[in-house]
Every structure is written in structure tokens, then in C-alpha cells.
Design brief:
By secondary structure, the protein is mainly alpha-helical. The chain contains ten helices and no strands.
């Protein structure tokens, strides 16, 4: 006779390990953003993550491996949020686009959060293809959402123009709220 939990993974040490790994990667990303890749030490990341340095090395064999994993987790989280927002067909397209950009770039607007995007942009050689594939996926998601409303032909240039507007606004806006306000205006104009 099989147990009622057969086929289901119980909440165990594996879940705790996954949660711990997520927490360590979030702490690592914040530390890399604060100090930059070169000036960040494994000791600083361990301290920020409230883990011993040997414990950190047990999870990640090197600073480069840790950095890649932290950036991958961050970009995966962002693109998953974008997918969810754009899939919600019950909301108007303009509203979904503003929210998608906020999930992708808006969370990196402001004096402290801007450094996350900078540390990613400054180290493409360490990160490999993820710094190309994830932005490309973002553009594809935008293009698909726009094409449903306005047709496929004009959707790609429209998505690319929105991305360019977002990049400019991200560097000009002093706050996430201002970024969202100005982006809403830009998207409204582009969707006319």
C-alpha cells in the first residue's frame, strides 16, 4: 500500500536548502551591486548572507560561479514576472506593458537599485550568453503581446522603440514612480 504522500516531495531539508540558496543569491546580488564584481569578496557575501565562508564555498566553488548564479536568478525572476504580467489578457495592453517594463527595469531605478543593472552590464564576459538571451526573450514577449493588438509586422519595431525609451527613462528618472509615469506616457503615444 502506498503512502498518501507517494510521488510528492515532502517539505524537508531539500526545501530548506533551496530557500537558503535563494537567500544567499539575493544577498550576493545586493553585495555585488554595492561594491561591484571586482571589489566584492566571498567574505563580504558570506557576511551579508549570514553564512560562514566555508558554507558559502560549499554552495559555490568560486566568486565567478556565485556571480553567475546570482545574476541568473535575478534575470530569471524578472523574466518570469514579465511573462505573468503580459499573459494577463484581462488588463489593457498599455497597462500590462507598463507593468512588464516595471518588472524588467523599473525595479532598478533609483540610487541603490541602479547598481544591480550596472554590475550586470559591466561584466558581460563573466556572464556568458544569459546577458543576451534574457533581453532577447524580453523583446520577444513584448513583440508577442503587441502583435495581438496591432499585428505582427509593426510589433517588433514598436517593442524595440519601447525598450529604447525605457532605457533612456531608466537613466533619467530619479524614482521608480517617475519612471512608471513617463513610461506610461511613452507607451500611450506609441500605441496610438
Amino acid at each position: 500500500m502506498s503512502s498518501p504522500d507517494a510521488g510528492h516531495r515532502p517539505s524537508t531539508v531539500a526545501d530548506a536548502d533551496a530557500d537558503r540558496r535563494t537567500t544567499v543569491l539575493e544577498s550576493a546580488m545586493a553585495t555585488f551591486a554595492r561594491f561591484g564584481y571586482r571589489k566584492t569578496s566571498m567574505e563580504e557575501v558570506a557576511r551579508a548572507a549570514h553564512i560562514s565562508r566555508p558554507g558559502l564555498y560549499f554552495l559555490f566553488s568560486s566568486k565567478e560561479t556565485l556571480f553567475r548564479a546570482a545574476v541568473t536568478q535575478t534575470l530569471d525572476r524578472d523574466i518570469t514576472a514579465v511573462e505573468q504580467v503580459l499573459a494577463d489578457g484581462s488588463r489593457p495592453l498599455a497597462e500590462r506593458l507598463v507593468e512588464a517594463f516595471d518588472q524588467w527595469a523599473g525595479r532598478y531605478v533609483g540610487p541603490l537599485t541602479r547598481d544591480v543593472a550596472t554590475v550586470i552590464e559591466d561584466n558581460p564576459g563573466l556572464l556568458g550568453e544569459i546577458v543576451e538571451t534574457t533581453p532577447r526573450r524580453f523583446e520577444e514577449l513584448l513583440t508577442d503581446a503587441i502583435s495581438i493588438a496591432s499585428g505582427r509586422e509593426g510589433a517588433c519595431p514598436l517593442a524595440q522603440t519601447m525598450i529604447s525609451a525605457s532605457i533612456g527613462l531608466k537613466h533619467q528618472a530619479a524614482s521608480r514612480e517617475l519612471y512608471r509615469e513617463r513610461l506610461a506616457v511613452a507607451i500611450g503615444l506609441l500605441l496610438r
